[in-house]
Input
Amino acid sequence: KNQVEQSPQSLIILEGKNCTLQCNYTVSPFSNLRWYKQDTGRGPVSLTIMTFSENTKSNGRYTATLDADTKQSSLHITASQLSDSASYICVVSARGGSQGNLIFGKGTKLSVKP
Amino acid sequence: DGGITQSPKYLFRKEGQNVTLSCEQNLNHDAMYWYRQDPGQGLRLIYYSQIVNDFQKGDIAEGYSVSREKKESFPLTVTSAQKNPTAFYLCASADQGARVGELFFGEGSRLTVL
Output
């Protein structure tokens, strides 16, 4: 069964600190992996999309890594800011199948405290 | 500005009533999607459409209906047959289809059944 598991479920860090969020997946065959940021009560916004051949991708203070062999991805946030407080959702797309075939993780809720 | 507009942002409904959520996009995307988000769960696909006048059921289509009469519009009707309609509903669109291309989300509509 195609699944996406994220950890931790929630995380509290102090402003200015770094953190890493994890995403493990069992989706096959793999097409791409995305990370989204979702502020409370808002729609998700894309941070990165990574294909099989990409190991690392950065978007400002956000750096995503992908290990297609172990089927793991991480999202590293550097020098956190209060505005980073949000849920971060990992989404994996499978090759083939229907256009609706995206598997969503449950998200990691990050709280950045002053 | 280009984007996806969902309305209303908040909606209250009495049991037994149908309600329609609006989704309009001016990104010229062919594919549009409706997702449901519940606390502690990943997004679940309700319906999607890859072309005008055609749409496909997602994982949880029961109790919902859609239409795609125009490329820009993909309204979702939550019918009285939906047993637990209280949720946060997200509309999204993609240029090449969600499996390949980036998915753009609206700001969401929160439906509460009284």
About this structure: Chain B touches chain A at residues 4, 6, 31, 33, 40-45, 48, 50, 56, 58, 88, 90, 92, 97-100, 102-108, 110 (CB under 8 Å). The CA atoms of residues 28 and 72 of chain B lie 7 Å apart. Chain B is about 0% helix and 50% strand.
